[in-house]
Amino acid sequence: MIRQTLGIIPLVRNRSFQIAVFLWLVLSLSAGVLTRHGVPLNVPALNRMNPMFAVAFSSIAIAVLLAEMGIVLFLTRGRPSPELDQRAPDRAIAKKETWSLCIYILIIMIIGHYLGQYFFGEGIAMHLNGSVVGATRVQSPLEVWTWAAYNGILLALIPYIVFRCRGYSHQALNLKSVNLKNDCLVIAVVLLISCLLDLAGPNIFQFSAHQQVAGGLLSFIINMAGTDLPIMVLIYSILLPRYVKLTSPVTGFLLGAVSYPIMHLFESWTRYGSVSDSIVSLLFVFLTFFPPGLMKSFLTIRTGNAWVHLWAFHAISPHVTVDTRLLVHDFHIQ
User: Fold this and answer.
1) Where exactly are the structural domains of the chain?
2) Run of H or E residues at 282
3) pLDDT of 1
4) pTM across the whole model
5) What is the C-alpha separation between 79 and 104, in angstroms, rounded?
């Protein structure tokens, strides 16, 4: 049912999809107007661009990802679509679990933000300072390990244990493949495309062999704990089946995509000191993270396996191919 619903014609006619397109256009136009003289945020990657191109880049990214989704649909054309709503409990329990988990996430994010500011001068976010967009400061190894432990334990390990104790199997949590061979094919193709695109900017191959190995392994481990597993467990293991249960496949897919930027509201480059800064920060959080959220949500809703998005579109690319540079500098790897 999901594959047919996410087909081109049914998707274009879907009300949730139409609303999402309208909101994206409003968001993009608003960002273009507010930042026509420059982006007032400390984001190295954006500050190197023309302001209008910085806004348009997100729509370009969506176009590229839509092409990748088409490739994934072709690769998975012979397999049935997973019915994620059947993996969620009845509506009343699903609604209660969804709201409870969202409140828990918000509390942990807010506490982490202020704890990080108190101890390190910068809040604990879902990404390390400079992830993908370029660093604005060098972090201490203690700060990096604290970030990984805080997010890994509170936003991945504890929610996973709680829902396992509530009786949910790995398949109910989208953590078990029903077609391992095809999942591996999807991972290999999407990962290859992602890695090739990463070569266009700063990447791991610009370092020495020792920095590539030591920094790459460290980046893989730290980002796995600090962002990869929390995102997978919270959004694509637990929330996504409940979104589909409570709404519809398309709406659930879009909610899974929107949840990704919401998890990044406190990135190191966001500013909430004034109304104007807050609006621009929110706009660019969604411009930056909604496109990859679409891909992560799509990969999970098409395969029924949250591990697919983690290996194909998160853990290696960009957190090893691109973010190794952060760990090389933070840990002074020579």
Assistant:
1) 2-330
2) helix 275-303
3) 47
4) 0.94
5) 36
